[in-house]
Design brief:
The structure holds 2 protein chains of 2 kinds. By secondary structure, chain A is mainly β. Chain A is 0% helix and 53% strand. The radius of gyration of chain A is 13 Å and the shape is globular. The termini of chain A are far apart. The relative contact order of chain A is 0.33. The N and C termini of chain B lie far apart (41 Å). The mean pLDDT of chain B is 94. Classes of the chains: A mainly beta, B mainly beta. At the A-B interface, strand 5 and strand 9 of A face strand 5, strand 6 and strand 11 of B.
């Protein structure tokens, strides 16, 4: 099956610093990737759609200047949390679309971010 | 707008009991996909099933079965003879045909199976 990796799997950073999370499709090309956020004991909420070669599309309420998304190649999307604050502590999960349609969507293992 | 509702926040059963997780969805799309995912404590989502809106056949995979009823907009999931390893959070999700890959997740059901 298709594999999506995320790096790092967990990260602790200090308030005010920035942290970058990578999402890679290891054995397929993905023109579209998604970033989700999951707070403890809550559901996954879509943050943004990352499109290779173009600007990301953010969901309502997500600050695009705070959550910078770059999809520079067909196998890599990055999410940078800028000027992180404790309330940004969450589980961030990416997914990658292989081909058209959600039935070919593969999730990464997630990155747990803790901001102290 | 799309919406997925999982009415049960938490379910607790004893091993070998059958358990059904409910999922009700809302969408204006005529073509859509429904999913179930399992999220164990590790956090990684495990894909269980995908069903498109034109296929109302029920499906069985081992101890798992799914009942899709368009008339009631429901896509329920049953685990037969539950096991401790089934303990996890289960999410129902929806992708509308016009949403191009975006998934709307339900709130999740925490299933605890006691030995």
């Amino acid at each position: 099956g298709a594999v999506v990796s995320q790096h790092p799997s967990w990260v602790i950073c200090k308030s005010g610093t920035s942290v970058k999370i990578e999402c890679r499709s290891l054995d397929f090309q993905a023109t579209t990737m998604f970033w989700y956020r999951q707070f403890p004991k809550q559901s996954l909420m879509l943050m943004a759609t990352s499109n290779e070669g173009s600007k990301a599309t953010y969901e309502q309420g997500v600050e695009k200047d705070k959550f910078l998304i770059n999809h520079a190649s067909l196998t890599l999307s990055t999410l940078t949390v800028t000027s992180a604050h404790p309330e940004d502590s969450s589980f961030y999960i990416c997914s990658a679309l292989r081909g058209l349609g959600a039935y070919e969507q593969y999730f990464g293992p997630g990155t747990r971010l803790t901001v102290t | 707008a799309q919406k997925v509702t999982q009415a049960q926040t938490e379910i607790s059963v004893v091993e070998k009991e059958d358990v059904t997780l409910d999922c009700v969805y809302e969408t204006r799309d005529t073509t859509y996909y429904l999913f179930w995912y399992k999220q164990p404590p590790s956090g990684e989502l495990v894909f269980l099933i995908r069903r498109n809106s034109f296929d109302e056949q029920n499906e069985i995979s081992g101890r798992y079965s799914w009942n899709f009823q368009k008339s009631t907009s429901s896509f329920n999931f049953t685990i037969t003879a539950s096991q401790v390893v089934d303990s996890a959070v289960y999410f129902c999700a929806l992708n509308g045909g016009t949403s191009y890959g975006k998934l709307t997740f339900g709130q999740g059901t925490i299933l605890t199976v006691h030995p």
